[in-house]
Automatic annotation (TrEMBL):
<dbReference type="InterPro" id="IPR036390">
    <property type="entry name" value="WH_DNA-bd_sf"/>
</dbReference>
<protein>
    <submittedName>
        <fullName>MarR family transcriptional regulator</fullName>
    </submittedName>
</protein>
<dbReference type="GO" id="GO:0006950">
    <property type="term" value="P:response to stress"/>
</dbReference>
<dbReference type="InterPro" id="IPR000835">
    <property type="entry name" value="HTH_MarR-typ"/>
</dbReference>
<dbReference type="InterPro" id="IPR036388">
    <property type="entry name" value="WH-like_DNA-bd_sf"/>
</dbReference>
<feature type="domain" description="HTH marR-type">
    <location>
        <begin position="10"/>
        <end position="145"/>
    </location>
</feature>
<dbReference type="GO" id="GO:0003700">
    <property type="term" value="F:DNA-binding transcription factor activity"/>
</dbReference>
<feature type="region of interest" description="Disordered">
    <location>
        <begin position="143"/>
        <end position="165"/>
    </location>
</feature>
<dbReference type="InterPro" id="IPR039422">
    <property type="entry name" value="MarR/SlyA-like"/>
</dbReference>
<dbReference type="Pfam" id="PF01047">
    <property type="entry name" value="MarR"/>
</dbReference>
Amino acid sequence: MTAAPASDPDGLLAEQLLRLTRRVHRIQKRHLERRELGITPAQSRLLRTLAHYSSPPRMADLAERLEVVPRAVTTLVDGLEAHGKVRRVPDPANRRVIRIELTDAGRETLRELRAARRAAAAEILAPLGEREREQLGELLNTLVDGPQVPPCEEGATGRARDGEG
């Protein structure tokens, strides 16, 4: 990868962010593989998303939240259900609607996922002191909570993303 010229500080930052993101994913993947959870990164993302709902969501809700097509969610749920991590349950108000809920095994897997993420974060943040970590947290909050921009042209084509993250 070619470094952005010093005259392009935003380009350099973009490149550094991309490299950091890739490093985070590699380290998280290594920590997850050590735990032998038997799920894909996309399935782990679906489990983490499920955990944010106060009641079991519909598959369409998950697809919207994950920004993927409904068929992608069906495939992810099929795999997780086969491993006993989630189950399909009928909606009490409309039995034709299917909702997805975590099982006890799914909740245990989430605990393992969180532990793996914490271990990965500790590894990545190890070179930073307490004050640097606080500063990084403040900067990341600014970026994460910043103004919402419309999706780029490529994202507006309706193509599904791979659901990993």
